[in-house]
Amino acid sequence: MTAITCENLGFAYGRTPVLDAFDATFRPGLTLIKGFSGCGKSTLLKLVAGYLRPTAGRIVLPGDTRHGAAFQRRDLGFVFQQLNLLPLASVRRNLALVGALAGLPAATTDARIDKYLALLGLEAFADRDPGSLSGGQQQRAAIARALIKEPAVFLLDEPTSGLDDLNCRVIMNLLGAHLPAGCICLVATHDWRLNALPHESLDFNRFLPVERHLVALA
Description:
Layout lengths: L3 E10 L2 E11 L2 E6 L6 H9 L6 E5 L8 H6 L1 E4 L11 H11 L4 H14 L15 H13 L5 E5 L7 H13 L6 E6 L10 E4 L8 H6 L1
Parallel strand pairs: 3-7, 3-8, 5-6, 6-7
Antiparallel strand pairs: 1-2, 1-4
Helix pairs in contact: 3-4, 3-5, 4-5
C-alpha cells in the first residue's frame, strides 16, 4: 500500500502521554499537521521516521519498507528544527554526503544538488560553510539536503518557523510544486502562512488540549 498508516498509536515521555489510540492514514502528497507547541506534532514525525518507538500500536510504512537504518538512509528525508547541517562542510558537501550514504551514483547526486540548490536559490552559496549563511539560507540548505535522495517519506518539523515572508514563499513554492513523485510529505507547523499549501490537513490540537493556564495568560 502506498501510504503511511498509524494504528492505535500511543506514546509517552515517562508518565506524560502525548499520543493515545491515534489512528491516521497519510497518502502521497503534502499533509499539514497543525497545532500549538507541545501538542505532539514533532513526536509524530519522529515516530514515523523511526527515531522514537511507540509505546502502543504500530506504524505501517509504504510497501514492504521497515523502520531501520536502511529506511532512514535511502527512503527518508527529515528536516529537523535544529537543522543539523555539518558545520565544517560546505553546503554542496553536506548534500553530497547524504547522496553517498543513500547509495546514489555520483552523477545522480551532482545533478540533484544543482537542481535543488537552483530551486531554493542557493547556487551562489554552494561552496560556503553553513555558519556563514543567514538563518533562512541555512533552512533552505537543510531542505535541499533532505531532498537529495528524493525520498519516499519527507518530514519537515517547523520548516518556516522564524523565517521572513520571502524565505517562507520560496519554501512553499518548492513544497507545492516540486515534491518527488509519489512522495508522502508531512509538515508539522503552527505557521498560519502554510494553510493554503496542503493536499490534506490534520489539526493536532484535538489530540492534546491546550494548557488551560496559558489560555488565561493569553
